[in-house]
Amino acid sequence: MRETQAIVERIKRVNRGYQRLELAVDRSLSALLPGQALLVRRISKDYAAEIWHPYLRDLWFPVDVLASNILVVEQPAREQFVPGQLLSLLGPIGKPLRFRQKLRNLLLLAYATPPTPLLMMLPPLLEQGTSLTMVTMGSARDYDCAHLPEEVEIIQASDDHSWGDMVMTLGWADQIFALVGEGPELIRFAEIMRLIRSRRSDVPANTIFGIFQRQLPCGVGACQACMLPVRPSARLQCLDGPAFDLTQLRLA
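-> structure tokens emitted (252 positions)
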């Protein structure tokens, strides 16, 4: 991980709540893979005169790579950005997501959070012929998915987090990646596991992964604030994450 700078080149509104920023970045970041993130903060043109520090940055998951030096990120429309704006980036953060070698059917769950960290995986998996279904639960249902690839099946769960053909959807999935909102993440992941186990008898290891997106104070494992209770020993989100096998997490 190292610090580089980015320039906001283009801004495009993609739905009523979100905008996409095209960032001109160092070419080394074009190798980012799904699951890896950046620690970001805005800077001014006299950045060299500022006191540098790695802390109190925002965690951004890119949603696409357009060229060798262009990353795309998605941010709430309420956040104000302008073309030419400078950003300080620390990254890459975390490890790429691990997909099965012969992945036919993938289920994505977004619970009480926008599905942004899940979006970068969509184009490469569709290109290799993987069938993708995304289920939005709770406040994630407010996210407008119209700009996502039409090949992705979108399901909105009901208020009790169920949906039609739920047993078939869960049983059909070779792998499941779940994403929950900030706050009581372990409690929400526990809810997802109870939901899945109530409708799928076999939940083997390395099948269901939770993607953590809590804010990271340092990103290098120094503060240990992102430590998670994973069997057989604790792991760090910034170094070992963001995805962890939910069958190995000590859930609430």
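The two ends are 32 Å apart (CA to CA).
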